[in-house]
Amino acid sequence: MGRDDLLAKAVEYYAANGVRDTSLRTLASAIGTSQRMLHYHFGAREDLLAAVVDALAAQDARDLEDLFAREADPFAAGRENWRRVAANAEVVGALYFELAAHAMHGRPYAAPIRAAVPQRVEAAFAAAYRAGNADVPAAALARLTVAVGHGLLFAMLLDGDRAASEAALDLFTSMVRDLDEASRTDAPPPS
Amino acid sequence: MGRDDLLAKAVEYYAANGVRDTSLRTLASAIGTSQRMLHYHFGAREDLLAAVVDALAAQDARDLEDLFAREADPFAAGRENWRRVAANAEVVGALYFELAAHAMHGRPYAAPIRAAVPQRVEAAFAAAYRAGNADVPAAALARLTVAVGHGLLFAMLLDGDRAASEAALDLFTSMVRDLDEASRTDAPPPS
DNA sequence: GTCTATAACTCGATAGAC
DNA sequence: GTCTATCGAGTTATAGAC
Question: Is A87 inside a domain boundary?
């Protein structure tokens, strides 16, 4: 089994069980390898965790890029984004928040996770800009949109009520649409 | 040093350094006690963590109750709430997300943290109801509002940009205000 | 690349004197 | 309530054969 397979399985196991008290022994036997092989392929434990963080961030970036390449309309992209994120969250969501907390505490291996927020904000910003509403404070709207996504994901993972999070997201979408229309009154869209 | 002092200091230390790899030995010597005393007052390590979670949840509930008792206007209460949460977040925010992640992974000692979301949602719901906008889907708005708070807090703790989170919150507030006015067109407020 | 074995250390928890 | 001492288990990391 090569390094890449091992890494994928490690992410999967950590996602299901948390990184907190999963020893290398436990992980190794759970994913069908030995402790020795983990050290052989990844080095120290923290190096493995760094590889996990990088893999998560890389997949996130790939997903995001693919999303906006496929969907031009920002509202459709937003809806499709939630669909993907929510589906994925059942498996990696808890790990994402756990590693983010480690980043907040300054652990070096978790540092790349900090990039996830600005990255999504930038994508949302570009989408808002493309939508042509120049009057709206696009930077604030972008950050707000990303925050809504994270917050509703957080709530869903804690109380399991996906439908409630989706209803809240629909409400937010309609509020943004209203904002859009108001801004278009004196500044019609290009296209 | 009594149990309460110990607990307060433990929360403080965990908040600054994370719970992840803080051993009882490390914690004890950092807060000026012995490992023996931690076991004496709290029992097993997980019992101590449970006490920490309870203390956090209790303080949160107290803050929330005090907030709405003091501020009748929901917009003013929202603003004041952010002021408090943001100030507190620099110290306990990371711990909050870390323990929430543990709750997502099903750790029993962290379970009470799940109540934090519904609790804040209920408070926001009551505030929205008191504001008299019956046409707005109040449950969705309440969950959305709480999610905005959590999401902007999350972003702030990761990138350190408090001003950006506040700008986004101001935008959200104005969007809710617009929603309010629209709903009042055919249903004027009481009082 | 994969295995077994183990060194060196830290952990949670307990014992028992004071 | 507080201390020192220690048990037994579990941890990361490495050694060395194949």
Answer: yes
